[in-house]
Amino acid sequence: MRKKKENKEYLGYYINEFINISKIRNKESTYSNYLYTINSRMIVLYNTKIKNIDIKFINEYTNYLFDKGLCSKSIKDTLILLNEILKLADIHINIPMPKVIKKEISVFNEDEQIELEKYLLNSPNSVNLGIYLSLYTGIRIGELCALKWENIDLINNKITIKKTMLRIKDTNPNNRNKTKVIVDSPKSTSSIRDIPLPPFISSMLSKITNILPEYYLLTNSISYIEPRLLYKKYKQILSELNLSKYNFHTMRHTFATRCINQNFPIKIVSEILGHSSVKITLDRYVHPNYNEKVKMMNNLQKLY
């Protein structure tokens, strides 16, 4: 737990100020993430005098984080948070950020996708239907877990994404459990969206009986399946199919890749995925292969 520092000469004062502001301004999940980062990585900064904070100090702190074994992504996130705290103290430093190597996205090849679909269709239940839905809509695991029948419009063939489910650190020190499950609005306004359903998906959904609006899709009841349990069930399926190297997000990547290959306009793919900008979609999914590059270069023959 953080130390109390009321003296404005110390960084701890501004860390506490940031925590108080964040609790009011941010979503519970964001506040929980900030609090966890501060309590696990910034305790050592509380007694630092403001006048001693310079680029040398920042570099030493960055090295400290590396020595703790944090990855570049976690260190970058921590430094971004520190930068926001420093602004409260009217300290403006151009903090050097560690280079984060982008992971190559994983995608099911066509044979793997066919094998997975065959399993899901031959073993019909609410969970498998949900996984199949994710494969053909690109919705995130938290969005799928939070999806209720009231969000599914089979007359107009669409689903509406309004909520996401996630497990966060419990910020109440009096609670016995360290984490809790919450259902909240998605991480950005662009993630609140309508997704048109292909007719074959609508047909599958229309066969479900005993539907009430407040029922969750994955259970067809008022009880829910949280993301980590759904992920466990998903990995069990992939293990049976010898496809266990893929995470749940692979289905989202696969959906986007298939759409691009089918010449979907980028803007449409971006909005279906709930991306905040088309640039995100372009950077992640539009990667011409070598043969396509050769084909385009050969077109220069016409100019020769």
The CATH architecture of the largest domain comes to Orthogonal Bundle
Tell me the CATH topology of the largest domain.
Answer: hpI Integrase, Chain A
Low-confidence stretches: none
Euclidean distance between termini CA atoms? 71 Å
Strand content: 5-15%
The portion of residues assigned to helices is: 40-55%
How many strands? 5
Reported for the largest beta sheet, the result is: 3 strands, antiparallel
The ordered H/E elements are: HHHHHHHEEEEEHHHHHH
Give me some keywords for this one:
globular, mainly alpha, 3-stranded antiparallel sheet, two-stranded antiparallel ribbon, 5 strands, DNA polymerase, domain 1, about 50% helix, hpI Integrase, Chain A, about 300 residues, 13 helices
Structure description:
This protein has two domains: 11-88, DNA polymerase, domain 1; 110-285, Intergrase catalytic core (hpI Integrase, Chain A), CATH 1.10.443.10. It has 13 helices and five strands. The strands form two sheets. The chain has a three-stranded antiparallel beta sheet, with no helix packed on it. The protein has a two-stranded antiparallel ribbon with strand order 3-4. The mean pLDDT is 91. 49% of the residues lie in helices and 7% in strands. Strand 1 and strand 2 (158-161) form a beta hairpin. The chain is mainly α and 304 residues long.
